[in-house]
């Protein structure tokens, strides 16, 4: 290459560096231009490329085998500051990664409000809990949480849950090879449908559950409404879900108008239709449907996935399996001879199994983050979160903090022996006023399944080395393909079906 060729190449390289620098600076110029001196109080970080921000690096990490590389890259570039400025899901945002900062954001309702991205609001519904006022949230939370958390209601639901668990395990054992996760999601969906809608046809449940699968793939995707993208498919799924639920709501209203509903205990839909706030306002169909979309989704996705992972961890750790099974055998052994099935007090006595579930919740961290928005300028840890900026509460960093959890990537239920994490250090269901209202029901549901699995079954995976996917939720790529095998029927007292 001649002299002028080298000069030309040098200019090309210089031009490339300048263009890259300009493009990487556009978001900072645009979003920080009105902050004045406050921009110097922002946490370290960068706002990525125009329009896409840091989403490519986020998606690249979470579609690889090393999802922690996204946060690790921020650590390596800017130090362990605990807070980083980024541009995610279409908004300038601050990621908080320490327990103290996460707790502050989750519990300070005077300074923060829900800040879910527009893509999530469009998919889950703007009348659901993800985008309503604090006052509206308190009213609806009280209305919907009591039926899934009260001792009396939990005891009532237990029989339905256990009957379906026993039936499902027996069925799966005779089916040969199955997608364990897929079948678990169907099971947990049936349970949440019973709680909210009493009963629906098998066809309706299959349609709803199938559309929820497509919906979830779009919740953590970029909001690109073009055929071929996950968000586009999720919007189509949302439309189908709304149509099915609208038909159910319309039919229920008509039956109530004609007073043709059978005299049975009210379900959650009845409670929503009867609800009336202090001003006499009732919920319209659109509001009821959005609440149903949210609850039916959250009520089966997390339970199904965590049940699968707890089962896999038990199978992978024979010593843990042995202790957990021994505990369940002891519960059955001490049961009165005339008792059929589990009681709530027995679930509360499952001390070791509770540690297995908590450890699974920690290691898997089903929800990697939640979104808040600063109502005003907020000062945390020496940095300023500007009013209107989004805040991503990064649960994974909290649950994998080696200062709280020794060897954090290791599955070890014994770490919970005599250990109670400080406030903000264990957040599997979020925190503050918007803590997941169904957390107790979820843990009971998982406990009932594991009780019967430990006593009578084992899982034989077809492909134990199946790669793990992390979006929209952590799962084996093959949905845990394998066989459920019955291993013992002796000395085990099960529910008469």
Keywords, please?
single chain, membrane, 53% helix, oxidoreductase, 497 residues, transmembrane helix, 3-stranded antiparallel beta sheet, alpha+beta, 5-stranded mixed beta sheet, ent-kaurenoic acid monooxygenase activity, disordered C terminus, Cytochrome p450
Can you give a write-up of this model?
- The chain has 497 residues and is α+β, with helices and mostly antiparallel strands.
- It has one domain: Cytochrome p450 (Orthogonal Bundle), CATH 1.10.630.10.
- The chain is built from 17 helices and twelve strands.
- It has helices at residues 3-32, 55-62, 69-78, 99-107, 118-124, 134-149, 151-173, 180-197, 202-219, 230-258, 268-274, 285-316, 318-333, 344-348, 351-364, 395-399, 439-456; strands spanning 83-88, 91-96, 112-114, 177-179, 369-374, 378-380, 383-385, 390-394, 457-461, 468-469, 475-476, 481-486.
- Helix 7 (151-173) runs antiparallel to helix 8 (180-197), helix 8 (180-197) packs antiparallel against helix 12 and helix 10 (230-258) crosses helix 12.
- The chain is globular, with a radius of gyration of 25 Å.
């Amino acid at each position: 290459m001649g002299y002028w060729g080298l000069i030309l190449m040098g200019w090309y390289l210089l031009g490339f560096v300048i263009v890259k620098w300009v493009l990487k600076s556009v978001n900072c110029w645009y979003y920080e231009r009105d902050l004045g001196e406050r921009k110097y109080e922002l946490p370290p970080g960068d706002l990525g490329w125009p329009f896409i921000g840091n989403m490519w690096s986020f998606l690249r990490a979470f579609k690889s085998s090393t999802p922690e590389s996204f946060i690790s890259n921020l650590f390596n570039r800017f130090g362990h500051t605990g807070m980083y400025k980024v541009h995610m899901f279409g908004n300038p945002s601050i990621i908080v990664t320490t327990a103290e900062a996460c707790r502050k954001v989750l519990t300070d309702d005077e300074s923060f409000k829900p800040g879910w991205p527009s893509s999530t609001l469009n998919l889950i519904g703007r009348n659901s809990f993800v985008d309503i006022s604090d006052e509206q949230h308190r009213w609806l939370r009280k209305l919907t949480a009591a039926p899934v958390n009260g001792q009396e209601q939990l005891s009532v639901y237990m029989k339905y849950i256990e009957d379906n668990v026993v039936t499902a395990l027996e069925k799966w054992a005779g089916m040969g090879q199955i997608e364990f996760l897929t079948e678990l999601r169907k099971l947990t969906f049936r349970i949440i449908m019973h709680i909210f809608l009493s009963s629906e046809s098998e066809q309706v449940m299959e349609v709803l559950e199938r559309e929820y699968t497509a919906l979830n793939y779009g919740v953590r995707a970029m909001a690109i409404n073009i055929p071929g993208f996950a968000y586009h498919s999720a919007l189509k799924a949302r439309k189908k879900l709304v149509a099915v639920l609208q038909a159910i709501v319309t039919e229920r209203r008509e039956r109530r108008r004609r007073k043709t509903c059978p005299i049975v205990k009210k379900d959650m839909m009845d409670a929503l239709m009867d609800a009336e706030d202090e001003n006499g306002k009732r919920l319209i169909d659109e509001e009821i449907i959005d609440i149903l979309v949210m609850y039916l989704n959250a009520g089966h996705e997390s339970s199904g996935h965590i049940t699968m992972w707890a089962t896999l961890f038990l199978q992978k750790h024979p010593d843990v399996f042995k202790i957990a099974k021994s505990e369940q055998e002891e519960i059955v052994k001490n049961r009165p001879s005339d008792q059929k099935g589990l009681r709530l007090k027995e679930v509360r006595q499952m001390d070791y199994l509770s540690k297995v579930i908590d450890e699974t919740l920690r290691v898997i961290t089903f929800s990697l983050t939640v979104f808040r928005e600063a109502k005003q300028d907020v000062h945390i840890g020496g940095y300023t979160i500007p009013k209107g900026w989004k805040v991503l509460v990064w649960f994974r960093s909290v649950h994998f903090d080696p200062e709280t959890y020794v060897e954090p990537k290791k599955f070890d239920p014994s770490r919970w022996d005599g250990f109670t994490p400080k406030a903000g250090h264990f957040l599997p269901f979020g925190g503050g006023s918007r803590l997941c209202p169904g957390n107790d029901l979820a843990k009971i549901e998982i406990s009932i399944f594991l009780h019967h699995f430990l006593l009578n079954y084992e899982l034989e995976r077809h492909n134990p080395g199946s790669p793990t996917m992390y979006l929209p939720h952590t799962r084996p790529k093959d949905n845990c393909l394998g066989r459920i095998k019955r291993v013992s029927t002796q000395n085990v007292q099960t529910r008469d079906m």
